[in-house]
Amino acid sequence: MRNIRLSVSLLSLVAAILFVPCSSFAQTIDYGSLQSLFGESVTTAATGTPQIARDVAANMTIITADQIRQSGSRSIPEIISRVPGLDILRSAEYTHDVGVRGYQRAYQPRLLVLVDGRQVFIDDYSRTLWENIPVNVDDIRQIEIVKGASSALFGSNATGGVVNIITYSPLYDNNNVVTGSIGSQRNLIGDVTSTTKFGDLGGLKLTAGGFDAEEFDTPRSIENKLISNNPSKYYAVASAVVQLSPDFQSSGELTYSKSDAIGADHINILERMEAETYSAKGGFAWQTPFGLIKNNNYFNHTKINNKAPNSMDSSWMIIGDSTDLIVSQLEDEFKIGADHTFRTALEYRHKTFNVDMPSVAVNPQKPRTEEDVYSIGGTWLWNIDDQWSWTNAFRYDHQDQEQTGTIGPAALVSLSDYSHSLNMLSVNSGLIYKATDKDTFRATYGRGIQIPSLIQVGWIADIASAGTVLSSEGNPDLKPTVVQNYELGYDRKLPEIFSTGRVSAYYQINQDLTAFSPNWSTRSFSGETFMLIQNINVGNSQGWGGEIQMFGENPSGFRWDGSYSYSRVADGNLVKTQINFEKSAPTHHFRLSAGYTNGNWEFDTKSDYVTQTSMSGPGKTPTAGYYSLGGRIGYKISDTFTASLSGTNLTQSTTNISTYPQVERQYFLTLTGKF
């Protein structure tokens, strides 16, 4: 039956890609027209119907293309760092992890990241390789950030939040842009996007680019072997949308990306990550008498080599893995009367995970984990009256998993013991009250599910290390982590000062968090000593806090964004020992951005002050709070070309921002042409 299901899904994907031209499924929405209609950025991600951010039944912030340009950054984590409640863990020049509301760690598993409806979150360790995402920053229309458990609205693993990246549509937009940058650390960056329109029939968009640089020179103790590695990335994307009839639109996309970077792994040790990914996607949107029916199918393949120095000797530990993901989604959005909007959804996911350890394995072994997830979900938006609206959503996941391939002879259990099933329920509910044209109140609840990673439940490996065999075995008895988030929010328009004020407070409960077991059991097999390492559920954690923000722009060209975020975490004893969320992110974080446009000139600055942090792991000591300042000066040379000078960490040559090597001052000179 598994092979039949897989074959059907593959045929569906291939048929969608061959039958239709290639583009991104998310681009069935004309965001530009909606923005003109509403007078501000609009999202359809939460419920399917157009909404401005303050009307969404979740804590959502939308970063616009103008704000992306004014940031002066080519890095998505640095761009979204302006959002209160997000904290960026930077372990090398191009390697970042994004934490939400106090829950920070390397290989962040709690944040779902999407690009035009396709998951770029990788299921091996449950992580996002930000440096490997195939997207041109100048081709991003907007970035939607959601804080809090949102699995029922956006999908499994959206337990801490969501980053939803929307690029320009080849059908509705005509984005043609070329950008080149040079900078410190020998940075060379180039990106190009070209759009070809076929009248009202459709459009084709081609994007390519990458970077090459030198890593920071700051000391790395045992990781000095990694300093010679220079980070790099190369990518290409082809996408298209075709309007086959007034009621039927088809889409598809092909992507390729290859990157090489240093970064922290899941136990906070620096390693070298060589990643190669490609994807194919196809789908359609069909307006019928029964509602708007959408289909989305995609295939992701990711190959990663993880290389780390062995602290017990002078050898390299090299572990290669590949992850395949096939997704098929079908949904129907329809209305009953004028006040009720419904969305029903079905989804099938097939995951495969293979491990290759030629340099460290002591026994012939090539484990393979396979997983099927079947999901059903629904959303109901009830516009009760002009002031009240209520959104409810649910998602039910059924997971089947099995282990195949070859494992080491010393494994404690057989392959059949790794076959298991899980049933998981996610819920979101949000009540919106528009007291006046200026005042909006929001009360939300989210129950999100974080599925254990493929490494945690299925990987079996025997690795030689200094006379001992480390037997790392998956734990099929792991429970999924359940995150419940309660939140109150208030938005106030302040037209007298051209501003908007925003306040939110939250309380979060995390149950059955997972980590490596601290109790390594030792046993002998065929004259060798084996030490068992295994993931276990380490207990619960609670978090609470909130954010205060004021932002705006006046007709004179001045803009501002100031915020303060507070987050506290209380871990259970074993969680504190193994993960230490309590101190992983700053308790207090102050942000202030300001800018001014005068004719052809743009001036922008961004400053941050954060308090002390600490990460678990060998050699990790607390990091004092720090202040940072960045800025950009842009000049529009002509209607086509803009030049800019930008920099980060401007007030000091190096800054100790985390327990990882210090970050150096950076500056970039950029030339952008829009045609």
**How many domain modules?**
1
CATH class equals Mainly Beta
| CATH architecture name | Beta Barrel
The total of beta strands comes to: 36
Name of the CATH homologous superfamily:
TonB-dependent receptor, beta-barrel domain
What do we call the CATH topology?
Maltoporin, Chain A
Helix content: under 10%
Assign an overall shape. Answer: globular
Q: Which ranges are low-confidence, i.e. pLDDT below 50, for 5 or more consecutive residues?
A: 3-27
* Rg, Å, rounded: 24 Å
Number of helices: 7
Mean pLDDT: 86
Query: What is the beta-strand fraction?
Result: over 45%
The separation of the N and C termini measures 52 Å
Biggest β-sheet, characterized? 22 strands, antiparallel, barrel
Structural class: mainly beta
Task: Give a nutshell description of this structure.
The chain has 675 residues and is mainly beta.
Q: What would you say this structure looks like, in words?
A:
The chain is mainly beta and 675 residues long. The protein is globular, with a radius of gyration of 24 Å. Strand 17 (316-336) and strand 18 (340-356) form a beta hairpin.
Topology:
Elements: H1 2-19, H2 31-38, E1 42-43, E2 51-52, E3 59-64, H3 65-71, H4 76-80, E4 86-90, E5 96-100, E6 111-115, E7 118-119, E8 140-147, H5 151-154, E9 161-167, E10 177-183, E11 187-197, E12 202-212, E13 232-245, E14 248-264, E15 270-288, E16 291-309, E17 316-336, E18 340-356, E19 366-383, E20 388-406, E21 420-434, E22 439-450, H6 454-458, E23 460-465, E24 468-473, E25 481-494, E26 499-516, E27 521-525, E28 528-553, E29 558-571, H7 573-578, E30 588-598, E31 601-610, E32 626-636, E33 641-648, E34 654-655, E35 663-664, E36 666-674
Parallel strand pairs: 6-9, 24-28
Antiparallel strand pairs: 1-2, 3-8, 4-5, 6-7, 8-9, 10-11, 10-36, 11-12, 12-13, 13-14, 14-15, 15-16, 16-17, 17-18, 18-19, 19-20, 20-21, 21-22, 22-25, 23-24, 25-26, 26-28, 27-28, 28-29, 29-30, 30-31, 31-32, 32-33, 33-36, 34-35
